[in-house]
């Protein structure tokens, strides 16, 4: 039995269609709210929905919302957008990187998480088993006490380091994956520590073809990408349009190098659009439509000029690969 689990229910992998594999839609991360970083709060459901509607207008069908509980997601708002636009949204169970845990847990979450003050306190004082049970409930019962279930499980690590609490969440997420068969995703800070994550996942007996590594394009190193790809895992190039990190040509060349080495079936592409200034309808940004409307034609032209079949690769990165990556295989 194989299916993809969306907030609206389980679907067949073939129903997913054109998919962004790592986005944030409506969220109010406590860590950033406490520090007055308004740009990082996607806190207006109607504005977020207008950007998602633009994505749909260009033919988008599905979005993976990579926002975990510790990043202040608004499950009800995201589910409402999915309903109102008739678009598939995959939710995320699990955790983010550790520095975000130095933030207050909102009162409404305490009946679900436990009576802790901060996320760090919760993760430190809970056993791995208790954290595993929490993640399993988010996949099998629903996110944050709602009936809307997660379609992937996530953990994260920091820049060039993995803290003991990050390792604890990695192990809890791996064990929840074994129990639920949910696909796994990770945050790598600036693309680092992917290989170290792999070692820990192997120690938990994880088959790496169930894994996608986020933010691989933040570390535009073809040798490193090859080491990750060799394990069978998916690589998420989810920093499209972030020229402050690298020009588009760098990301495209890294992708085409992986294609040359035979890994075209393991590549995902998305925008990780998590700031008001990236959204068109919050603050005049390029918007959620940018990749499907502008980047895809540029990639096709660029790839074709270099002797690749650009159209075929786009079908893989946005349709075929997500359909395999996000499938539960029971
Ligand atoms: Zn993200």
TrEMBL record:
**Which InterPro entries would you find in this protein's record?**
Metal_Hydrolase, Phosphotriesterase
- Cofactors that this protein relies on: a divalent metal cation
Q: Pfam families under this entry?
A: PTE (PF02126)
- List, alphabetically, the PROSITE patterns matched: PHOSPHOTRIESTERASE_2
Acetylation: is it a keyword of this entry? no
Cofactor binding note of this UniProt entry: Binds 2 divalent metal cations per subunit.
State where Zn(2+) 1 binds. Answer: 22, 24, 154, 272
Task: Tell me which residues bear N6-carboxylysine.
Answer: 154
Query: Is Lipoprotein one of the keywords UniProt gives this record?
Result: no
Which GO MF terms does the UniProt record name?
Answer: hydrolase activity; zinc ion binding
Q: Which residues bind Zn(2+) 2?
A: 154, 187, 215
List keywords of the entry alphabetically. Hydrolase, Metal-binding
Family recorded in the similarity comment: Belongs to the metallo-dependent hydrolases superfamily. Phosphotriesterase family.
Protein's recorded name: Phosphotriesterase
Organism this protein belongs to: Pullulanibacillus camelliae
Its ancestry begins with: Bacteria, Bacillati, Bacillota, Bacilli, Bacillales
């Amino acid at each position: 039995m194989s299916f993809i689990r969306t907030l609206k229910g389980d679907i067949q992998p073939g129903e997913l269609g054109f998919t962004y594999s790592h986005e944030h839609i409506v969220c109010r991360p406590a860590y950033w709210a406490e520090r007055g970083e308004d740009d990082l709060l996607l806190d207006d459901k109607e504005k977020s929905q207008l950007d998602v509607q633009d994505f749909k207008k260009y033919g988008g069908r599905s979005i993976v919302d990579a926002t975990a509980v510790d990043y202040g997601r608004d499950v009800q708002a995201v589910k409402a957008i999915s309903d109102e636009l008739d678009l598939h949204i995959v939710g995320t169970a699990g955790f983010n990187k550790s520095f975000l845990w130095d933030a207050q847990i909102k009162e409404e979450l305490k009946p679900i998480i436990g009576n802790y003050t901060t996320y760090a306190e919760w993760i430190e004082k809970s056993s791995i088993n208790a954290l595993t049970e929490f993640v399993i409930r988010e996949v099998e019962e629903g996110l944050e006490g709602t009936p809307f279930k997660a379609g992937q499980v996530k953990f994260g690590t920091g820049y060039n380091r993995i803290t003991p609490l990050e390792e604890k969440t990695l192990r809890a997420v791996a064990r929840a994956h074994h129990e639920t068969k949910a696909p796994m995703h990770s945050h790598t800070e600036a693309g680092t520590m992917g290989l170290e994550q792999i070692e820990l996942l192997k120690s938990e007996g994880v088959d790496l073809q169930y894994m996608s590594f986020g933010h691989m394009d933040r570390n535009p190193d073809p040798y490193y990408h090859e080491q990750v790809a060799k394990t069978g895992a998916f690589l998420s190039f989810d920093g499209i349009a972030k020229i402050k990190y690298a020009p588009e040509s760098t990301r495209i060349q890294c992708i085409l190098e992986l294609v040359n080495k035979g890994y075209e079936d393991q590549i995902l592409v998305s925008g990780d659009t998590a700031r008001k200034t990236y959204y068109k309808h919050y603050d005049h940004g390029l918007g959620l439509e940018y990749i499907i409307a502008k980047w895809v034609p540029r990639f096709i032209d660029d790839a074709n000029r270099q002797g690749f079949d650009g159209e075929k690769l786009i079908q893989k990165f946005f349709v075929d690969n997500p359909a395999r990556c996000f499938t539960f295989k029971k």
